[in-house]
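CORE FACILITY INTAKE
Project code: CF-77B
Contact: R.S. (postdoc)
Sample description: multi-component assembly, two entities in total
Requested service: structural model of the whole complex
Turnaround: standard
Below are the sequence entries exactly as provided by the requester. Do not edit them.
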Amino acid sequence: MGSLEEQKVISGSRRTRWPDIFKLGCVLVRVTVGALFVLAGATKAYDPGAFAIEIQRYQLVPWVLAALISVYLPWLEMLSGALLLLKRFERGALLLTTLLLLIFSLALASAMFRGLSIDCGCFGKAFTATGTTIPLLRNLLLLVFMGILWIKSR
Amino acid sequence: MRALRQALLILLAALIPAGLTAAFHPRRPAWSEDTLLPGEVKLQTVLAWGSDVLWIDARSLKEYEAEHVPGAILLNLEDWEQLFPRFLDRWRPEEKIVVYCSSTSCELSHEVAERLKTNGISPVYVLKGGWEAWKNRK
């Protein structure tokens, strides 16, 4: 094979490699975010009563609303996460998970801003003593990932 | 537009298991803040019990030192190993134990009450509303 042909093959493979890596990255992000949402929802759905208390610790909503959120949100998280994993209703699931991450991040930031010494409550009582800083950073990172998924889904 | 339509369907679909949870889940939340959870007791009830009550403050040392229910002793999960022997020195089996933390939204009192029960201590109750309820008593 001549050197010109070799160069063509090499540059051709470079052209295809980056989109492949991007695609693989998107699959990884989708699976990770989907699995995290399913896990987060399941741990909360196990004990909605305790989750309602976690919500009330944020001091953002009255008790009755915290109780309603505690029975609804875990299922919404699980459903959105599962659909993201299964690539069904993908754009809707992507929209909801992104919105939920935004809302969670705002709640965490407001708790930090008000100096509340609380746990995130992101995974119910499965992971405690997490504080708010690390969960907020994790959520922001996940939001960046979601941005990548949105770019891909356009 | 497709994303919105799909999101709406997911939001609606989640209502079904949420409704079942609200109706039948054994650990569903109380709908009114005044509803007592298992093991909880109202301040008026404790006050009616009179002097045979040992108050346990499940908050942090800092909060305890700032103010606490008269006669209450500090017993939190952070310093359990150090504080539990002190509690045993004070505890008389005929006393009712009432644990409190900051407010309704704190769960430390429930956790301390559970730990006391697993150590064979009873009867143990949790004060509904915690320290806030004590402070706002009339």
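Facility notes:
- The mean pLDDT of chain A is 85.
- DSSP finds five helices and no strands in chain A.
Invoice: internal transfer
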